[in-house]
Specification:
Main location: nucleus
Strand content: 5-15%
Number of helices: 27
Radius of gyration: 53 Å
Subcellular location: Chromosome, Centromere, Kinetochore; Cytoplasm; Nucleus
Pfam family, one: ZW10_C
Family: Belongs to the ZW10 family.
Helix content: 55-70%
Protein name: Centromere/kinetochore protein zw10
Distance between the termini: 160 Å
């Protein structure tokens, strides 16, 4: 039996090899004719013979494999040679068969009844064959390059035809005029042809980038940010669906459409665009392809340029708003129409869930903006705050005193009352409101001094008002301490407010002291001076005038304790400097002494009037008694001075030391026994 099989193999192998060689020659002629000489060549008979030859090869290979498995010892060398020859020829046969298959597929492209889908399917098979190069010899064949070039040509031709046909079926047009723009989308109702074109484009992995760009730039962008005239008509024309919109190129911010109008228009557009949403399978449709490029930028634009600006800025408006529900319903609509990309499908829903938080932040931002606007108002109008309304903290105890504050700070305080009431009326937003109040007060300490820097440092009344304003706000914090006590930052803000007002007012006091010292430069006393002139009197009167001006602008503005403390401090410095210069004289002539007494009389007549109760100057100005005693010394005799000193027990000892009295005696009186006796008694 095995011997018979071997004879059959030995007979059939040469025959099959000969037929394979003949087949290879025919394929070579076909390829050469079509891809070298470009002469049409009929391949139908070759294909029929190919099928028969392939069956014979399979039977022959099976026979040789069987002999090999049985390990026949008969003519083993001949069998091995037959097998090698057969393997080589089979390899050549497979190459020839593949080339003929590719060629046959190219030929089938020319059939008139081929549709777009079938053409794409054939090109897909050709691409698979060209990519599957099992035998390295294939890559070295010159004809393979010709196949690749032809495939690329046919593929580009198909894509070009598909794009052209798609543009016929879906017409996207826009025209710009001087101030307006018109956009038209016309969709052909030939569903079968549209289906073939779109499905084929999808199967060729077409990205529809041009369509996406057109829709984003010319349709959705203007619909989201501008008022548009939109016409969506799918009934009046049996052959096409029409989407048409026109809009102004430049539109003011105040004319932007509300979010409800925007969502409604976008839904209308998607509803009519659904005529091109060809569904290939459950997982693939045209809208899903468009969504991969459009979903994120469109939703981002909708959020940033429409929804965000329409989030209510007041609690009342937020209660009446249906924005959260509307955005969720719109997101569900996009999902229903299959406008999904798998990555950004929850973008709008997540934003809708954050609208309440954004509203609270926007509300707080509006509160802060309103407060800053109040702060920046130029208010020179003053408001009287009565004792029961305004608490001032003195050095040792709490006192109540009337004063003046600006209309601006009164309005700010009323606004803070309103904000605090809103905070506790809406517990979920309370924390944000409280933090905003803290921010308002912190901004007050920065913005107001910066905006009114020149006024605060140059005009005494303004610095006094600012001090009162800061204390007024500090009092408001103390008054509402029970509501704010859970927020530790207010303790620091309270201290900072008080310090801010005091610092500004203290700088004004320092400025007044500097002006006074500058004026006293005219009060020059020297040993060579024979009598006082107008210069010294002018310096004293200038300082008194300065204090009187401060009285006019401070007495009704500052709380009484603060006014008394501030003005008495300036008076003390004034008196101290004048007396220091008088006491520094080595020789005081009668003329100079009389002049100094006249100047002291001017001061004693005018300075008490700086206070509502003139006699209060004795308690408020520490240097006042010393001034009066200095006048007594300038007018008195040696006997009177001795009696006033009274061996260190008289009234002069309250303000003067022994050395000071001795120096004045030497300056006022000549060196006599009486002066020596007087000086000797002063110890």
């Amino acid at each position: 039996m095995e011997q018979t099989q071997f004879k059959n193999v030995s007979f059939n192998v040469p025959v099959v090899l000969s037929r394979i060689s003949s087949y290879q020659k025919e394929v070579r002629d076909i390829i050469s004719a079509n891809y070298v000489d470009f002469v049409p060549f009929n391949t139908s008979s070759v294909i029929d013979d190919l099928k028969l030859l392939e069956m014979e090869i399979k039977e022959l290979v099976a026979s040789t494999d069987l002999l090999t498995v049985d390990k026949s010892n008969v003519a083993s060398n001949d069998l091995r040679n037959y097998q090698q020859d057969l393997e080589e020829c089979v390899r050549g046969y497979k190459i020839a068969r593949k080339l003929l298959s590719i060629h046959d597929l190219f030929e089938s492209l020319n059939l008139t009844y081929n549709g777009y889908e079938k053409t794409a399917h054939i090109l897909g098979k050709i691409k698979s064959l060209l990519d599957e190069l099992e035998d390295p010899v294939l890559a070295e064949l010159h004809c393979l390059h010709s196949f690749i070039v032809r495939y690329e040509t046919e593929y580009e031709k198909l894509i070009s035809n598909l794009n052209g046909k798609f543009n016929e079926l879906v017409q996207l047009q826009h025209r710009s005029f001087q101030n307006t723009k018109s956009v038209t989308i016309r969709i052909n109702r030939d569903e079968n042809l549209l289906y073939q074109v779109v499905v084929t484009l999808l199967n060729t992995h077409h990205n529809f980038h041009t369509v996406c760009q057109f829709l984003l730039e010319n349709v959705f962008a203007p619909v989201i940010v501008k008022p548009v005239s939109l016409i969506c008509d799918e009934k009046s024309n049996e052959q096409s669906v029409l989407i048409q919109l026109s809009y102004q190129l430049t539109v003011g911010e105040e004319l932007r459409p509300g979010y409800k109008t925007v969502l409604s228009n976008v839904m209308k557009i998607f509803y009519n665009l659904s005529n091109i949403n060809i569904v290939v399978s459950e997982d693939e449709c045209l809208f899903k392809v468009l969504a991969k490029q459009m979903k994120k930028p469109m939703c981002t634009m909708l959020i940033e340029r429409c929804l965000e600006r329409d989030i209510p800025g007041t609690i009342e408006d937020m209660k009446e708003s249906s924005m959260v529900k509307d955005v969720c319903e719109f997101n569900a609509f996009l999902h229903t129409t299959n406008f999904v990309d798998g990555e950004n499908d929850h973008l709008l829903e997540e934003y809708a869930n954050s609208i309440e938080t954004i509203h609270q932040q926007k509300l707080c931002d509006n509160v802060l903006d309103t407060a800053i606007e109040i702060m920046k108002r130029e208010s020179h109008e003053m408001v009287l705050i009565q004792d029961h309304e305004y608490q001032f903290v003195g050095s040792s105890k709490t006192e109540l005193s009337s004063c003046m504050v600006t209309r601006t700070v009164v309005e700010l305080k009323k606004f803070l009352d309103k904000v605090l009431a809103e905070a506790f009326a809406h517990g979920d937003a309370a924390s944000r409101f409280i933090k905003t109040i803290a921010t308002i007060l912190e901004r007050y300490m920065v913005d107001v001094p910066m905006a009114n820097e020149k006024l605060l440092f140059k005009i005494p009344q303004q610095s006094a008002l600012f001090r009162n304003d800061c204390t007024y706000l500090n009092y408001w914090l103390q008054k509402n301490d029970d509501k704010l006590n859970d927020h530790g930052s207010f303790a620091n803000i309270s201290d900072a407010l008080k310090a801010c007002g005091e610092d500004i007012f203290q700088q004004q006091l320092n400025s007044q002291r500097a002006q006074m010292m500058q004026a006293l430069e005219g009060f020059k006393l020297s040993i060579n001076l024979l009598e006082l002139g107008t210069e010294q009197q002018r310096a004293i009167r200038q300082c008194i005038r300065q204090l009187e001006l401060l009285k006019n602008v401070w007495q009704t503005v500052l709380p009484d304790p603060v006014y008394k403390q501030s003005l008495s401090g300036l008076i003390d410095q004034f008196l101290r400097e004048v007396m220091k210069r008088i006491q520094s004289l080595e020789d005081i002539t009668t003329a100079i002494g009389n002049g100094l007494v006249l100047l002291i009389d001017i001061m004693t007549e005018t300075l008490p009037n700086l206070f509502k109760e003139p006699n209060e100057i004795h308690q408020l100005a520490k240097q006042w008694m010393k001034l009066l005693q200095l006048r007594q010394i300038l007018c008195g005799s040696l006997v009177q001075i001795t009696e006033q000193w009274a061996e260190g027990k008289g009234p002069l000892t309250m303000c003067f030391g022994a050395d000071e009295i001795k120096h004045l005696v030497r300056a006022l009186f000549q060196n006599t026994k009486q002066r020596q006796t007087c000086i000797a008694s002063i110890v």
